[in-house]
Amino acid sequence: xxxxxxxxxxxxxxxxxxxxxxxxxxxxxxxxxxxxxxxxxxxxxxxxxxxxxxxxxxxxxxxxxxxxxxxxxxxxxxxxxxxxxxxxxxxxxxxxxxxxxxxxxxxxxxxxxxxxxxxxxxxxxxxxxxxxxxxxxxxxxxxxxxxxxxxxxxxxxxxxxxxxxxxxxxxxxxxxxxxxxxxxxxxxxxxxxxxxxxxxxxxxxxxxxxxxxxxxxxxxx
Length: 221
Description:
The structure is a single chain. It is built from 6 helices and 9 strands, in the order βαβββαβαββαβαβα. It has helices at residues 14-24, 82-105, 126-141, 164-177, 193-203, 215-218, and strands spanning 5-9, 29-34, 46-49, 63-66, 110-114, 145-149, 154-155, 191-192, 210-213. Helix 2 links the parallel strand 4 (63-66) and strand 5.
């Protein structure tokens, strides 16, 4: 029986690294698509290095995981400085859409994308607007199964994270108020990146036309 093949875009990031770890614990063949070499954790994992400029073909894969994102500070999420906007749009929108279209053209049927809670193409916030526009564009491609994971603030160890101490303080404070975030506010609770990744990999077995994963789904894993 042929192994399922998964292509991972953004395997060095917070969620992407956990997606890779979860996939390597399965019997799937895994291919990493990276801008720079990522440490291989398993002999069966393949790696394709590209700057995406001249990328015009991808290896055959059954499933595409998208966890790539331009590194932004906690303040940037509220208002992205003009000097960062072009690169942010290139990474979080243009590259993702290009890979998604190439993968589909080469036979990939399923895509799972790390988006964000509040993603909305009509949002006044550039970050949430971009995530919302990306979701809408991906829906148009033609995938048989689409999953958008919409976490709030992700918990986990970040390398070279700006304002690390401030983030620690905010996470500590939000931990205190989370029990009071009930009903419609529950989806805005912080969530561990590893739980988001585990939920996405588990959800890849459910071939739904469009599936939205939020906090209530992540805490089950």
